[in-house]
Write a structure and sequence with these properties.
Strand content of chain A: 15-25%
CATH class of the largest domain in chain A: Alpha Beta
Distance between the termini of chain A: 62 Å
Radius of gyration of chain A: 26 Å
Largest sheet of chain A: 6 strands, mixed
Oligomer: homodimer
CATH superfamily of the largest domain in chain A: Carbon-nitrogen hydrolase
Chain lengths: ~550, ~550
C-alpha cells in the first residue's frame, strides 16, 4: 500500500482555498500511484479555528467541504481533519475528527481523545473527547488513526488518564497514522520526533505523521511530517517550513530494519540549529501574515539599534526588499551614528528609507502640555511622547499608503515593560517579541555570519532607547545576560521567587525583575500578536491576571 | 445548625489580604453564634488566578493560607475554596477544591467535578475534574459540598456527561452547599436563581450559595449569594454588588414550607432592572480596578458626545468627582456645542476640566507628513491623526500626573472597527466597551432619570466623531438600531450570515457588518480589557482568529 503525505498550509475559514488545495493533492496522489493520501488535523477549516467553531454555519461549511473532498476520493482514499458533530445529548457539541474518505464517501470517523488545553491550546473549549477506538481496515491493513495529542501521552507522568494507542493496540493495527497541528517552538522538532519514535518502538508498528506548515497569526507550523519504522527509526522527514508531498510504500517501512541511534531521553540541538530554525520560522511567520491578510508592503521604524535592524532583515527576506519601507525618525537625543547605522543597513538591504525628524513635533507637544504638567521635571512622560510621535508617524504612513506596521520590541523589554504603549509597542505583528535581547544578538550574528548585513556598529554599541541625553538600557535595567536568565526562569520555567533565589541570584535584582514583569501585564494585554518561537511566548499561551498582587 | 454566608471581595495573589478578610469573618461568625461559615470558590488565592496556577510557589502559598485559616477554625467550622494538589500520577496536577476546616485542621476536601471551559472560563487548563463524591457529616447534618458549575448541569441537554448531585443524592444529604465564582452579566441573576432553585426542588433539600463580589479586571462579580428552601423558594438573598454577611438556621430553612411562585422556564427581568444592574456593575468595576491596582485618579477625554459623557458619570460615581479629571481636546472640526456640552457635563458633576486644543499639533503633523503622502487626499489617515493626538495627550497626562486613562469606546464601534487604534482606543480599562451604542443611550437615560446630569443636547444630537467637517456616524455606518441588532445576532447569538439573512435583514448591509467585524479582529487584539456586562463581551470570552478569511 502506498501512502502519500501532503504537508500544506491552510487558511482558517477560507474553505474555497483549502478545498482546492486538498483536491489538487488528492489528484496528484492518485496520478502518482498512491492508495491513500493523508492531510493534517482540521485541514478543511484551518487551525486553530478558535471561536468560529461556535458558529453552526462554520461547522456546516466544514462538513460540506468534507463531502466535496470525499467526492474526489475515487480510486484513492484520503484522511483529512475536520470538526464533526457529537450526536449524543450529553457533552460538548463537537468532536475534533479524522475522516477516512473512500469510494466517494465518508467511510469512517475517528475522534481526538486527548484534547490539549494548555499554553496556546484551547481544544477542550470546543470539543468533547472521543471515547471509541476502532481501527480502520483498508487494502488489507489495519490503521490506528490518531490525532496529534493522542500520541503525546507516552510519559510516566501522563497528563491524561487514558492513552488511545493502548486501546488500539489490542486490535493489532499495522500502522499508526497521526494527523497533527503541532505548533513550532525552537525545541519542538526533537520533542516531536521523540514522541513519534517512542510510539513506534513501544507498539512495534510504523508511524506516518502529517503536520501543517505556515503561520496562523502568532502560531507557526514548521511541518516536519515524517515516517518512522517499527524500531523507532526515522525513515524520512518532509521539509521544514515549506509545503511538501511524498509517497511511501507501507510494506517497505514495516520491513525497514534500521534501528534508532538517538537517545530520546536527551533532546539535544546545536546553537546553530536553534538559530537556523528561529530564522526560518520568523521569515515564514511574516510571509504568511501578509499572505493571509492580503497585504504586500511593510513599514518599519528603523532606529539604528539591533532590534529594528534584525526585524528589517527578516522582513526583507519574507517580503522582498521592494515591499519594505524603513522610516528613520531621529530626535534631538538620537546620536548621529544611529542614523548612519540605520542608513547603512537600509542600503545593505536595498530598502527604501525615509528620514523624518521628530524634533519639531516633539517641541510642539511639549509647549502644548507643559502648562498642565504642574512644573514636574522631565521624566518617562517625555520619553514616551517621543516614542508615541514615532508610533503615530508610522501608523499614518501605514494608513495612507496601505502598509502594515511591524513591531520591533524584544521579549526582554516586553517582559519588564521597557517600552511605550501606543509608541514603540505599536504594530500589527510583533516579529521578535519572543526573542530575549540576548537571542536578538545571537540571531543577528547568525544573519551576519557570511557577510556584514547588520552594521557592525549596531551589533557592538551598548543598547539605548536614546530618549534622553546619554541614556543607556543599562541605566534602567540589569545587564541583559542576567536579566534574560532570570526572565527565562520566571516565564518559561514558571519558577517562583524563592526557587529563583535558590539558584544564587541577587535578591533585590530578582525581586525587582519579577515585580516589573507582574506590573506590566497591563501593557502586554495591548501588545500586538507575537510570533511564537519559544515554549512560552507572551500572548495567548500565557494568561496572567492584570490586577493581581502576587510578589509585588 | 447555624450557617453563616460570607460574601466578600478577594484580590488575586494578595494572600495577606485574603487571609485577613477570611479570618476576620470566621471570628465574626463564631462570635455571632454560627456553627459553620462559608466562603467562595478559590477565595484564598482570588478568582481567576489564571496562569499563576502554574507556579508551584503560588500553590504552596495557597495551601499555607488554608492551613493558617484552619488554625482559626476552633469552635466553628469553615468551608473555603482553594486549589489543591492531585496526588495521582495521571491527569493534571491540581484540583479546584472546597476545604472543610474544623478543629484547627482540614477535615475534608471536595473537588470540583464540572470545569467550565467556555466563554471567559479556562478551568480545564489547570484542573483535573474531581471524581469522588462523598458527603460531609457535621453536627448531625450531611452536607453535599459542591463548587459553582457542579450544580449547573441540570438541563436536558447537559454540557457534561455526569452530574455531581446525582452522585451525592444516594447518600441522603440534608443540604447542598455551593461555593462559587460566578461572573456577572445582566441576565445572569435570573439564570443563577433558576439553577439553584431547580437543584433544591429536584433534590428536595435546601441550597446555601456563596459568590464573590467585586471585579477582577474585566470580570465583575455581583454577589447575590442566597439560601433556597427544599421547594425551590428563595428564602433570602445577600446584597448585590457589595460585601455582605448573614447567618441562617439550617433547620428553619429545611422546614420553610413556602413554594416558589416564579416560572423558571422564563428568565424575565425588566428594562429598568437591566439598566440598574449594568449601572451598579460598571461603577463597581471601575472602583475595584483602581483599588486593586492601587491608583486613585482617572483621566477621561471628554468630547461632548454621549460615550465619554456616560463614562465620566460612572467614573465619578466610582471614584468621587475629586478623583476625576476631564480633558477637552477640540480640533478645527469640533462643533462649538461639543465643547459647551462637555463643559456643562463637567460642571454638573463638579469635575475639574481642562481644554487643550489640538489644532496646532495637528497642523505640525500634517506639515511634517504631507511630503510623504504621495499627494493622496484627506482620508481616514488624517482622522486617525486627530484621534491619536488626543490619545497621546491623555497618556502624557496619565504618565506625568499618575492618572489611569479610562477608555470610552462602545461595543458597536469596537465591533465594526469605528475607532482609532492608539487613538480613542487607548486606556487602561474600557468602561462601556460591552454596551452597544443603543444601550449607551439607554443607560444615559437611566442616569438622567431624576435630573439632567448628561446635557440634553448630548443625548439628542446625532452621533459624530467630528474628525472631518460635518461628519456623522450615519455617513459610515448603518443606523445604530439596525447595526446593534445585527451585531447582537452575530456576536451574542453566534448566528451565521445565512441565519441572519433568514431573519429578514438586507443582504448587503449584513454582509458589510459581518465583514467589518471580522476584519477588525486585529484592532480588538490590542483593545484595553472591557468590563463584561453581557453574555458575550469582546476580550477573553471571545477568541477569534486574526488572519482568518471567513465570510470576507
Amino acid at each position: 500500500m502506498k501512502i502519500a503525505l501532503a504537508q500544506l498550509y491552510y487558511h482558517t475559514g477560507n474553505f474555497e482555498l483549502n478545498i482546492s488545495k486538498i483536491k489538487n493533492n488528492i489528484l496528484r496522489a492518485r496520478s502518482e500511484g498512491a492508495d491513500l493520501v493523508v492531510f493534517a488535523e482540521l485541514a478543511v477549516c484551518g487551525y486553530p479555528p478558535r471561536d468560529f467553531l461556535e458558529f453552526n454555519e462554520f461547522i456546516e461549511l466544514s462538513l460540506e467541504a468534507v463531502n466535496e473532498i470525499a467526492d474526489a476520493c475515487v480510486g484513492i482514499a484520503a484522511i483529512i481533519g475536520s470538526p464533526s458533530i457529537n450526536p449524543h445529548l450529553q457533552g460538548k457539541n463537537l468532536y475534533n475528527s479524522a475522516y477516512f474518505l473512500e469510494g466517494g464517501e465518508v467511510k469512517n470517523i475517528c475522534h481526538k481523545a486527548l484534547l490539549p488545553n494548555y499554553d496556546i491550546f484551547d481544544e477542550y473549549r470546543y470539543f468533547e473527547p472521543g471515547r471509541k477506538f476502532e481501527t480502520i481496515t483498508y487494502k488489507g491493513h489495519r490503521i490506528a488513526l490518531t490525532i496529534c495529542e493522542d500520541l503525546w501521552n507516552v510519559d510516566d507522568d501522563p497528563l491524561y488518564p487514558i492513552s488511545p494507542m493502548n486501546m488500539y493496540i489490542g486490535q493489532n493495527p499495522d500502522v499508526i497514522i497521526n494527523i497533527a497541528a503541532s505548533p513550532f517552538s525552537f525545541g519542538h522538532p526533537e520533542e516531536r520526533e521523540a514522541v513519534l519514535c517512542k510510539n513506534a518502538s513501544k507498539y512495534k508498528i510504523p508511524v506516518f505523521y502529517v503536520n501543517h506548515i505556515g503561520a496562523q497569526t502568532e502560531l507557526l507550523f514548521d511541518g516536519g511530517s515524517m515516517v518512522v519504522n517499527p524500531q523507532g527509526f526515522v525513515v524520512d522527514e518532509l521539509n521544514y517550513f515549506a509545503e511538501d508531498f511524498r509517497i511511501y510504500e507501507l510494506e517497505k517501512v514495516i520491513s525497514d530494519g534500521r534501528m534508532p541511534e538517538k537517545d530520546f531521553t536527551k533532546l539535544a540541538f546545536t546553537h546553530e540549529e536553534k538559530m537556523h530554525r528561529i530564522h526560518e520560522a520568523l521569515v515564514m511567520g511574516i510571509k504568511y501574515y501578509f499572505l493571509k491578510l492580503g497585504f504586500e508592503k511593510a513599514v518599519i521604524g528603523l532606529s539604528g539599534g539591533i532590534d529594528s535592524a534584525l526585524v528589517l532583515v527578516l522582513t526583507v527576506r519574507a517580503l522582498g526588499s521592494e515591499n519594505v519601507r524603513a522610516i528613520l525618525m531621529p530626535s534631538e537625543f538620537s546620536t548621529s551614528h544611529s542614523v548612519d547605522d540605520a542608513v547603512q543597513l537600509a542600503e545593505n538591504l536595498g530598502v527604501e528609507y525615509t528620514i523624518i525628524p521628530i524634533k519639531e513635533v516633539y517641541h510642539t507637544y511639549n509647549n502644548l502640555l507643559q502648562p498642565f504638567f504642574e512644573g514636574r521635571p522631565f521624566d518617562v512622560t517625555e520619553e514616551n511622547i517621543q516614542a508615541r510621535i514615532r508610533g503615530m508617524i508610522l501608523m499614518a504612513l501605514s494608513n495612507k499608503l496601505n502598509y502594515i506596521l511591524l513591531n520591533t520590541s524584544n521579549k526582554s523589554e516586553i517582559a519588564v515593560g521597557y517600552g511605550t504603549l501606543y509608541g514603540d509597542m505599536c504594530g500589527g505583528l510583533s516579529v521578535i517579541g519572543d526573542l530575549y535581547k540576548t537571542e536578538v544578538f545571537q540571531l543577528s550574528e547568525f544573519v551576519n555570519k557570511e557577510k556584514e548585513i547588520i552594521p557592525n556598529h549596531t551589533m557592538t554599541k551598548p543598547p539605548s532607547a536614546e530618549l534622553r541625553p546619554g541614556q543607556l538600557d543599562a541605566d534602567s535595567l540589569p545587564d541583559y545576560n542576567l536579566l534574560d536568565k532570570v526572565l527565562f526562569e520566571y516565564i518559561e520555567k514558571r519558577k517562583g521567587l524563592h526557587e529563583i533565589l535558590g539558584m544564587g541570584y541577587d535578591e533585590l535584582t530578582v525581586r525587582r525583575i519579577l515585580k516589573l514583569v507582574n506590573l506590566n501585564e497591563y501593557k502586554r494585554a495591548q501588545t500586538p500578536p507575537i510570533l511564537r518561537i519559544s515554549s512560552k511566548a507572551f500572548g495567548m499561551g500565557r494568561r496572567m491576571p492584570i490586577v493581581a498582587k502576587y510578589l509585588i
